[in-house]
């Protein structure tokens, strides 16, 4: 399958047209950015790690009843996805307080959030991805009331599935960000689910195995990502 014209270049992925109608080709690049692009680097193999992990989770979620844009892998860093109209929302689920929530609100890092907290940010770098409440989502016409309820339920379901999965690997799913898009009448999970878009801590030591390693110079980010990939490979062998 040949890549067509470049349709969109994000901070870590490039989207190309596909020869097949209704599909796109998503290439996970080796670029890594943090703090809205202020920090930038390239790590050989990082795109493959994130694509492999995303493909695994899209497949895992599909098997558990969550509809996603994933079609198939073309190579280790390239996947075919359904062509959607993205909804400009970053939906973040949090099980443990970390990152921006501890800066904006009086939560302590590591504080348990039970029940989990879902926040919705408007995806717009030029505005600093401002937080939206339900009324603003409806007023902006991004979702209907029913769609908003359904997306929150789906996000909680994804959180439960991923939390339990990582729990088995002795990791804590602290938080993650997902995005959805429209595909005909359906709303599907899109974008990626990778170490770039979640926080994962070792259950005992609370060591990070995610993008925070890069953000805050906590060690070798490729080693951290590699450990998650290896744990998932191990899990696959056992299941
Ligand atoms: O920065 P913050 O603490 O709000 O991030 C919450 C979670 O969402 C983290 O796992 C982070 O990696 C992810 N995130 C993301 N893309 C963004 C913002 C947050 O993947 N633009």
From TrEMBL:
<dbReference type="GO" id="GO:0009236">
    <property type="term" value="P:cobalamin biosynthetic process"/>
</dbReference>
<comment type="similarity">
    <text>Belongs to the SAICAR synthetase family.</text>
</comment>
<keyword id="KW-0658">Purine biosynthesis</keyword>
<keyword id="KW-0067">ATP-binding</keyword>
<dbReference type="GO" id="GO:0005524">
    <property type="term" value="F:ATP binding"/>
</dbReference>
<dbReference type="Pfam" id="PF01259">
    <property type="entry name" value="SAICAR_synt"/>
</dbReference>
<dbReference type="GO" id="GO:0004639">
    <property type="term" value="F:phosphoribosylaminoimidazolesuccinocarboxamide synthase activity"/>
</dbReference>
<dbReference type="InterPro" id="IPR033934">
    <property type="entry name" value="SAICAR_synt_PurC"/>
</dbReference>
<comment type="pathway">
    <text>Purine metabolism; IMP biosynthesis via de novo pathway; 5-amino-1-(5-phospho-D-ribosyl)imidazole-4-carboxamide from 5-amino-1-(5-phospho-D-ribosyl)imidazole-4-carboxylate: step 1/2.</text>
</comment>
<protein>
    <recommendedName>
        <fullName>Phosphoribosylaminoimidazole-succinocarboxamide synthase</fullName>
        <ecNumber>6.3.2.6</ecNumber>
    </recommendedName>
</protein>
<feature type="domain" description="SAICAR synthetase/ADE2 N-terminal">
    <location>
        <begin position="7"/>
        <end position="230"/>
    </location>
</feature>
<keyword id="KW-0436">Ligase</keyword>
<dbReference type="GO" id="GO:0006189">
    <property type="term" value="P:'de novo' IMP biosynthetic process"/>
</dbReference>
<dbReference type="InterPro" id="IPR028923">
    <property type="entry name" value="SAICAR_synt/ADE2_N"/>
</dbReference>
<dbReference type="InterPro" id="IPR050089">
    <property type="entry name" value="SAICAR_synthetase"/>
</dbReference>
<dbReference type="InterPro" id="IPR001636">
    <property type="entry name" value="SAICAR_synth"/>
</dbReference>
<keyword id="KW-0547">Nucleotide-binding</keyword>
<dbReference type="InterPro" id="IPR018236">
    <property type="entry name" value="SAICAR_synthetase_CS"/>
</dbReference>
